């Protein structure tokens, strides 16, 4: 293997596949990055066996030569050293050459690194994914879907299936649901799908977080292929594989109240900041709990009280309050997490009493729903 | 106590005095910030008993009203909560009021905090410092003096005096020296001093680091007052007190070689980057050691070799090499730390053989000197 490559492209690809590499692996070869040079370009692969990422660097792009392949071949290099080295190379082009006995030479300017490589034949094969039933969504929508749900997955391994996000495809619609049993996030989106195939799978939250980091903010389509135990996301020059979680995801539809007794419409940012301030003193006390009470004068009052430290009280003007008056307590963190996913200026909060879960939704938008269980204090 | 104050000024002052406050203190009142309102303005104080910082907010500045004093008085507030609260207040002005029994009300917009205060009478008095023998240096020079020496202090408590920087004032010159016995940093500067008084004290490295963070980058004069066991830095609206370290600082003058056998002049940045690259593979091996060898052709070679991982070798063109040829090994970290303090384009490195300490200095500038002990490998 021998090629000369643009340093910045190599750095970018190495950074991308590094997202899948961990030093905490029991399979030594997975601490490395696999590099394969063919006549068409160079492919890098990183994997922790749950997530695998493949980044492809074509020989040329838009008439610009990115890689000059002198000899095809393959090698595996220690990810930790290789990623540090490429970042610090002195010139814009890098030559990589495999010599005898898995010795790799990396040259850039007057700098020459000799690294001990690993046998590429020992690197595990990526999962084979049948591409029959793919569907497509724009990258920015995919990132929004992830951001608006993944924060609500469980961090506890007591019920492993809850550490993932439930993805359901039904009638040309994708529904993403995450819950840790104290709160629930639900986001729907129309998708481009050719077949009438339905899916119901659970994707690990960690995989979705890494996927989101690696994808640029643009509206190019990402192709998504779901199989029995794997999901594959195909973006430009990038393949992202994740295993799926086993087990049945609980049916959450009956948790979402269909009716409400009190409806409040309020500015998202004002509400978020008021809760943030009230939580400053609550953090130390029991479980970061703040209180909300409706006022007679079309306002709400946000407060918290931690006797050892002090108390805080703030009035907020609501755009409208309909229905019964209400006093309710909740985790400031859960409500702030939910509010951060809501992009609109105004939100509707639907309560069904102080002991029942409540819903936060953007005004006039049914695609996103955040559900939160209150805390019993009154 | 009751006053209305510009929020941004309050936030800035709280941030400044917070640098001295630690939660790891055995004196409970020192977890607080002392606030004193007089007819002239508001003073905030934070202290961990080693460092004390006082920030003064005048009633008005350049015709702009900053504080409106309604009633003078004093209070101590928990630093952790107070600092978080002021940052997140909703409006540009803040009202603070002490009510009965050390209860404090903080109002901003429709937000109202009630905090339990502590008795200001229990807050320790700041050290009394006689201001007879003050000298002055511009802020930016003071920050440079600190930055160019403090990194070389010892982090080990075996010889406590080495965790500080030795400040000597002799004949209108300030000399700052730090050493951890593997390396030494020395910086000199002319100062404005009225009396012929000489000083020789040791200031804790930690104090100098905090001082440097708190001072803005400008050339206003800082007044420095040294007493037997305290140093006081007086900047605009700011007093910074630090205790001094006890014990005699070792005489380091005999450590610095007066003559050299090999002199290399090289570009600072090129040299730094080459050592950085060579150290990438050395970090894992024994003590981050890289090698330097002079070449016949007015060049130097930087290399490192860690058999399990690989090796790196790089040639660097020197501006000049005079004297004996040389092979020497040293800690990449120590040399990089030293190089980062050198602002000039070119540096002179003076060697006296592979086993003797070597000096790095800016070309044509005697005010700064970095000394490093080599590592024996050849």
UniProtKB/TrEMBL annotation, chains A, B:
Record flagged with keyword Nucleotidyltransferase: yes
Any matching Pfam family: DNA_pol3_beta
Cellular component GO terms held in the UniProt record: cytoplasm; DNA polymerase III complex
Major location category of this protein: cytoplasm
Function according to Swiss-Prot or TrEMBL: Confers DNA tethering and processivity to DNA polymerases and other proteins. Acts as a clamp, forming a ring around DNA (a reaction catalyzed by the clamp-loading complex) which diffuses in an ATP-independent manner freely and bidirectionally along dsDNA. Initially characterized for its ability to contact the catalytic subunit of DNA polymerase III (Pol III), a complex, multichain enzyme responsible for most of the replicative synthesis in bacteria; Pol III exhibits 3'-5' exonuclease proofreading activity.
Domain DNA polymerase III beta sliding clamp central: 137-251
UniProt family annotation: Belongs to the beta sliding clamp family.
Protein name: Beta sliding clamp
Annotated GO MF terms: 3'-5' exonuclease activity; DNA binding; DNA-directed DNA polymerase activity
BP GO terms, sorted: DNA strand elongation involved in DNA replication
UniProt domain DNA polymerase III beta sliding clamp N-terminal: residue ranges: 1-127
Organism listed in the record: Bacillus yapensis
Subunit relationships: Forms a ring-shaped head-to-tail homodimer around DNA.
PANTHER family the record matches: BETA SLIDING CLAMP (PTHR30478:SF0), DNA POLYMERASE III SUBUNIT BETA (PTHR30478)
DNA polymerase III beta sliding clamp C-terminal domain span: 254-376
Taxonomy, superkingdom: Bacteria
Protein's cellular compartments: Cytoplasm
SUPFAM superfamilies registered for this protein in UniProt: DNA clamp
UniProt keyword annotations, A-Z: Cytoplasm, DNA replication, DNA-binding, DNA-directed DNA polymerase, Nucleotidyltransferase, Transferase
């Amino acid at each position: 293997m021998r090629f000369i490559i643009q340093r910045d492209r190599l750095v970018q690809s190495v950074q991308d596949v590094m997202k899948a590499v961990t030093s905490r692996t029991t399979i030594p070869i997975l601490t490395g990055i696999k590099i394969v040079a063919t006549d068409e370009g160079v492919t890098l692969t990183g994997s922790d066996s749950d997530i695998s990422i493949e980044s492809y660097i074509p020989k040329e792009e838009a008439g610009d030569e990115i890689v000059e392949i002198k000899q095809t071949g393959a090698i595996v290099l220690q990810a930790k050293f290789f990623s540090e080295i490429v970042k610090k190379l002195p010139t814009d082009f890098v030559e990589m050459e495999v010599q005898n006995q898995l010795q790799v030479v990396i040259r850039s300017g007057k700098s020459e690194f000799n690294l001990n490589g690993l046998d590429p034949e020992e690197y595990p094969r990526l999962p084979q994914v049948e591409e029959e039933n793919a569907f497509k969504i724009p990258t920015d929508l995919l990132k929004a879907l992830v951001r608006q749900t993944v924060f609500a997955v469980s961090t506890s391994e007591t019920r492993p299936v809850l550490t993932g996000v439930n993805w359901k495809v039904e009638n040309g619609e994708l529904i993403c649901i995450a819950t840790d049993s104290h709160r629930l996030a639900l986001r729907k989106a129309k998708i481009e799908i050719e077949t009438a195939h339905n899916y119901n799978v659970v994707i690990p939250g960690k995989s979705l977080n890494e996927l989101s980091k690696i994808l640029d903010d643009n509206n190019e389509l990402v192709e998504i292929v779901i199989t029995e135990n794997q999901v594959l996301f195909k973006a430009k020059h990038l393949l992202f594989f994740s295993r799926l979680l086993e087990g049945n995801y609980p049916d959450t539809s009956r948790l979402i109240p269909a009716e409400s007794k009190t409806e409040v419409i309020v500015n998202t940012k004002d509400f978020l900041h008021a809760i943030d301030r009230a939580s400053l003193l609550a953090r130390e006390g029991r479980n970061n709990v703040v209180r909300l009470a409706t006022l007679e004068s079309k306002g709400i009052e946000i407060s918290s009280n931690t006797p050892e430290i002090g108390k805080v009280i703030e009035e907020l003007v609501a755009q409208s309050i309909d229905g019964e008056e209400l006093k309710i307590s909740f985790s400031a963190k859960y409500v702030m997490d939910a509010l951060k996913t809501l992009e609109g200026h105004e939100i509707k909060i639907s309560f069904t009493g102080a002991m029942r879960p409540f819903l936060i939704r953007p005004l006039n938008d049914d695609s996103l729903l955040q559900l939160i269980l209150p805390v019993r204090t009154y």
